[in-house]
Design brief:
Layout: E1 5-8, H1 13-26, E2 31-37, H2 44-56, E3 59-64, H3 67-71, H4 100-114, E4 119-121, H5 137-151, E5 156-158, H6 166-175, H7 179-185, H8 202-219
Parallel strand pairs: 1-2, 1-4, 2-3, 4-5
The structure holds zinc ion.
């Protein structure tokens, strides 16, 4: 029997690249996506995700998780907390949502098992990460074991971007033939501007720096 995959999709560069990675690996008919509405300021990212899935013909489920904002207010969910430009030394930036990947992957696993899917795909990445502890490889491996024990099921969590730089992620998108889709139709910007973004926030900075680096590499 074919393996079925569920991609945790936010509508950003990384998870969108993962969606197409999963489609290539498991086949379109065996791939679905799940997104989380946790009160993020920019619902536009879920709209991006929805459009990309509709265009490619993938099922996309949006799950409401307002509890995340209730437990841990942060600058991605609260208008009155501005996004920090400079990350404080030794602590995650205030865009960090405590336990977010733990919860998202757990919710995704519950949904996946209910729908007979074993493969979970997430765009978390240790290389360019901003100090988010639940983006680390060790955490994902640990959670994989925990989920398998918790649900008596053989999940495999795939992290295709774990050791890639932002430039490498652009390269992967290019190899998958989706550079234009990622460039124009995804939302990474903390200020909610699709595609090229505001150019001013930390997310835009990392995205653009990676893109420029990849373009330079490609030319040579
Ligand atoms: Zn921005």
């Amino acid at each position: 029997m074919d393996k079925k995959a569920l991609v945790v999709l936010s509508g950003g560069q990384d998870s969108t690249t993962c969606l197409f990675w999963a489609i290539e690996r498991f086949g379109k008919e065996n791939t679905a996506a799940i997104g989380f509405d946790y009160g993020q300021r920019h619902k536009a990212e879920l709209v991006c995700a929805e459009k990309i899935c509709a265009d490619v013909g993938i099922e996309f489920e949006i799950v409401e998780t307002p509890i995340i904002n209730q437990l841990s207010p942060n600058s991605l969910t609260r208008e009155d907390i501005p996004v920090e430009k400079e990350k404080p030394e030794g602590t995650p930036p205030n865009t960090f949502v405590e336990g977010r990947n733990l919860l998202f992957l757990s919710y995704a696993a519950i949904y996946a098992k209910t729908h007979g899917m074993t493969e979970l795909v997430t765009g978390v990445c240790e290389t360019d990460f901003s100090g988010y502890p639940d983006c680390r490889d060790m955490f994902v491996k640990s959670l994989n074991v925990t989920l398998n024990l918790a649900m008596d099921y053989n999940f495999v969590i795939h992290t295709p971007l774990m050791w890639l730089t932002k430039a490498d992620t652009w390269e992967l998108a290019d190899k998958l033939g989706i550079l234009d889709i990622v460039y124009n139709e995804t939302l990474t910007c903390y200020n909610g501007i699709i595609g090229e973004g505001c150019g001013d926030c930390p997310a835009c900075f990392l995205r653009k720096r990676g893109y420029d680096e990849y373009m330079k590499r490609k030319e040579n």
